[in-house]
UniProtKB/TrEMBL annotation:
Swiss-Prot/TrEMBL keywords: Disulfide bond, Hydrolase
Domain SGNH hydrolase-type esterase: 82-328
Active-site residues (renumbered): S85 (nucleophile), H323
GO MF term set: hydrolase activity, acting on ester bonds
Protein name per Swiss-Prot or TrEMBL: SGNH/GDSL hydrolase family protein
Disulphide bonds in the chain: C101-C129, C250-C301
GO BP annotations listed: lipid metabolic process
Entries under Pfam families matching the protein: Lipase_GDSL_2 (PF13472)
Record flagged with keyword Cell division: no
Organism in which the protein naturally occurs: Dietzia timorensis
């Protein structure tokens, strides 16, 4: 879920026993495989401030998540979506959205688009991409995605809805640590655990850096730009589904639960992200769509999960771990459409 060419990351977890530890070793392999499968090849960077929009910088150089589809209609597209792999979807079949930004054809935003009659038309413009961030370059940022949408003519007076889902992939507190680092070196590290001391050891993002103010500051430039050029649109921050059921980080492997017994850093990250998105939405005057609350009983090791495990029969053996499974995409589509 990162740009090709970055140094590979390794986990310090060790497999010394059977049971949960060996299952977490399997998670390590699966996460590493998933990461190499979904690396954005392009390096999109942002620069420049249009003189007529004081706080809006939406100029991209290089290439990024440019989906090969028709230019938006004059006046903008009705539904515009920007986000990371949770929005892009990981269930099969995957389609190439351009520059190796793969997306699931049944991702929840495509289901929303079908419901309102704009799917596979210029009135649906999606730039979601695996590994996308709010503002952690060189990985694709929210400003980069807004620039690609600008180039398509996506924003205008006709634009009705703009959905944004991003934040977990960003570097919070530790400038060299992103979500993949946290997953490999903390969440699945049984030997050292994923307590808050992992932050100081450089193995995890700092959940205490994930605040409403910090989130708003990172998203403000793109939001201001969208408000200016799509004045009639309702902008929504889409939250993330439940990953840590009852504040326990657990992933299903072949139908068997595998838990991280010391998981304060990762569970606090998920919890703080929810409140940061909600608070930032209020600060920036946009809508917040809560997915965590309605999915509280549908985490990774529940009887009816909305997120994928590894070869998990409850998810139809579909998807990348801790991303929406087919049921999750379907249910989330309904929640998003009802609240956007």
């Amino acid at each position: 879920m990162r740009k090709t060419g970055r140094s590979p990351r390794t986990s310090n977890a060790t497999n010394t026993t059977n049971g949960p530890v060996s299952r977490f070793a399997a998670v390590t392999a699966a996460v590493a495989i998933g990461a190499t499968m979904f690396l954005p090849a392009a390096n999109a960077q942002s620069a420049g401030i249009p003189p007529d929009v004081a706080q809006a910088a939406v100029t991209a150089t290089g290439s990024g998540a440019s989906e090969p589809q028709q230019h938006a209609p004059e006046g903008g597209a009705r539904l515009v979506t920007l986000g990371d792999s949770v929005m892009a979807g990981t269930t099969l079949p995957l389609v190439d959205g351009g520059n190796e930004c793969f997306r699931s054809s049944d991702r929840y935003v495509s289901q929303v688009a079908r419901s309102i009659g704009v799917y596979d038309t210029p009135d649906f413009q999606d730039t979601s991409c695996f590994g996308a961030t709010l503002d952690s370059p060189p990985i694709l940022t929210l400003v980069d995605q807004a620039a690609h949408q600008r180039d398509r003519g996506s924003f205008g007076e006709r634009t009705e809805h703009v959905l944004i889902q991003a934040g977990l992939n960003d570097k919070w507190g530790n400038p060299d640590v992103d979500l993949l680092d946290t997953a490999l070196n903390c969440a699945i590290n049984i030997a050292q655990g994923c307590d808050m001391n992992a932050v100081g050891e450089g193995r995890a993002q700092d959940p205490d850096a994930v605040t409403a103010q910090a989130y708003a500051d990172r998203a403000r430039t793109a939001v201001d730009y969208i408000k200016y050029y799509a004045p009639n649109a309702k902008i929504s921050f889409v939250g993330y589904p439940t990953y840590a059921t009852d504040d326990r980080t657990c992933i299903s492997i072949g139908g068997l639960p595998a838990e991280q017994p010391r998981d304060e850093a990762i569970t606090r990250l998920f919890n703080n992200m929810q409140e940061a998105q909600r608070g930032a939405a209020e600060q920036l005057g946009v809508n917040f769509i809560d997915l965590k609350t309605p999915s509280a009983a549908h985490g990774g090791c529940t009887a009816e999960p909305w997120v994928s495990g590894i070869l998990d029969p409850a998810s139809g053996h579909q998807g990348v771990p801790v991303h929406l499974n087919p049921v999750g995409d379907h249910v989330v589509a309904g929640i998003v459409q009802s609240q956007m």
